[in-house]
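To: structure desk
From: M.T.
Subject: fold request, one chain
Message: Could you run this one when you get a chance? Sequence is below, nothing fancy, just the single chain.
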Amino acid sequence: MKVAFIGLGNMGSGMAACILKTGTGLAVYNRSPEKMAPLVAAGARAATDPADAAQDADVVITCLMDDASVLGIVQCNLLNAMKPGAVHLGVTTVSPGCADELARLHAASGSIYVAGPVVGRPDAAAAGELVSFLSGDKAAVEYVMPVCRSYSRVARYIAERHGTANALKLAVNYMVVSIIEAMGEVYAFADKAGVPLDPLRELLVNAMNHPALKMYAAKIGERDFAGRGGFAMAAGLKDVKLMQAAAGEMGVGLEIGDIARRKMEAAVAAGMVDTDWSATYEITRRDFGLH
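Reply: Done. Structure tokens follow.
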């Protein structure tokens, strides 16, 4: 199997490295060429553009930013470059409607789309510990499953409709951003009331059994929001907008999402584009009159 990987950001670079470790033939492409260098040094082929990466690939993986970037690269490059029957595995968090549209575009062009959004942070991607949600034609999902397992501790088939996997990913992210918002409010309330924060931080960290929740309890309590391996505020805001749009289409209101979105937009306006999305706590502190 020949694999092409397009998009080598915080998540993509780790995922591509995991694929390369299996001995799979790998072509890589990124707009910033320097991000290809470590993978090329480890044996990957540096493609000159997305079409070059995809032309001989059996599986093309895109790990980009949003609906527009994925649709753009598919329509401008992949549909014409991919060989008949090749599979496009989309790991980007996109809207459910975008995933369904990508499936339609590929079907009309003779290629196949599999939705494969992932849950986890960059350190989990590099360690092969992500969770993958996969939707689409079951035979196509089974075909790409060995690739998915190279960077995932769990790779689970969800449904035949492509957008279902993306809806599940948005549900997971909504749970996370809701917990982040609740933590931030609790910390700010305690700080405003003059409560020593160390006991609260210890309690929250110990109460959260999942490593990510432990991490957020500590990050918010310590106000450690640097972008090191984190989930950037701009990307988090994009996901919250996707959550709200998807919910709105179903007549569902996500009220905590309204709060999180307002604070994320304020954080972006304040220059915190690349900080971890849990830095919404700084906006909460500002709103509480804390410095």
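Reply (cont.): The first helix runs from residue 10 to 21. Let me know if you need anything else for the meeting.
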